[in-house]
Design brief:
Helix content is about 40%, strand content about 10%. It is of the alpha/beta class and about 290 residues long.
């Protein structure tokens, strides 16, 4: 999650311009990942390191209410480090730097430009940024980035629109009761990640089990097979692998590292058992007979 410190841009040739109250272009551009930041930079005439990265996977792990941004960063960094996605000290330093840069933009009353895609990861990140920017005294703009390989960021930039940042969506996300999620249209996919009543598994978990029901898969094969079921695709490979690992004993890892469904997982997928039961007792945690050697 490391990225060089971005700076607030004051570039008179910033495309067709976001002229701030000072009469000059004064904007901070925010994007949720390296690939998008690399595409944004030439569109707005900035070095890529001047695009602020807002990276987190808020669908994974705790996002508790009642914490300051600094306290929440500590919780998130500890969780991501526990996942094995970086050193906690590095992750925390990156989040603190990110938060400070956004706070600096607020203090300077800079225009803010948010570049986000229409998927769940971006919706949750946008909710967090909107919470931080609520009441911002300068214009905030949203660039809706198409989720297509042939997307044209220049066209997306020309179609940017004013955005009114509010704290409501992030408050809903942080609620200990998930019912407020239903009031946020962008969280519809998040609602599907709540365990269903009969099986106790989420939509993504069921998709993983269904893919593995046909044959064991390597990590990359599993990611591709599950991603095609999601429109738009939203989960990263390592996030999906974490979900698959957390499915034990319904899913196991073979000696060669491939993921395989167990007999317990087959029973849950077929509705004969629930995740809380751990599937059927016989053979629990073992790859399904006939499926391990494919």
């Amino acid at each position: 999650l490391h990225h060089s410190p971005p700076a607030l841009a004051s570039v008179a040739t910033l495309a067709d311009g976001l002229v701030g109250h000072s009469g000059r272009v004064d904007a901070l551009h925010v994007a949720p990942g390296d690939a998008l930041a690399a595409g944004v930079a030439p569109v707005v005439g900035l070095p890529v390191d001047d695009v602020l990265l807002w990276r987190d996977v808020l669908h994974d792990g705790p996002v508790p209410a009642g914490l300051t941004p600094a306290e929440l960063a500590e919780v998130r960094a500890a969780h991501l480090a526990a996942r094995g996605w970086g050193r906690e000290t590095d992750l925390l330093a990156s989040m603190r730097e990110r938060d400070e840069l956004l706070d600096t933009a607020r203090r300077r009353r800079a225009d803010i430009v948010l570049w986000f895609e229409p998927d769940l990861v971006c919706a949750l990140a946008l909710a967090q940024v909107a919470d931080r920017l609520a009441g911002h005294s300068a214009p905030v703009w949203l660039v809706s980035v198409p989720h297509r390989a042939d997307r044209n960021l220049y066209t997306a930039w020309r179609r940017r629109r004013r955005f009114d940042p509010r704290p409501d969506a992030f408050a809903a996300l942080r609620s200990p009761d998930p019912r407020p999620w239903a009031g946020v249209p962008a969280f519809s996919r998040l609602l599907a990640e709540l365990p269903d009543g009969p099986s106790g598994v989420s939509r993504l978990e069921r998709e993983i089990l269904a893919v593995l029901r046909s044959a064991p898969r390597s990590g990359s094969e599993l990611f591709v097979a599950v991603s095609v079921k999601e429109r738009p695709p939203w989960i990263s490979d390592r996030s999906l692998w974490a979900v698959a690992d957390d499915l034990a004993p319904l899913v196991s890892r073979l000696a060669d590292g491939r993921y395989a469904i167990t007999s317990a997982g087959v029973d849950v997928l077929a509705g004969r058992s629930t995740r809380a039961d751990g599937g059927c007792p016989p053979g629990e945690g073992e790859p399904e007979p006939g499926n391990a050697g494919h």
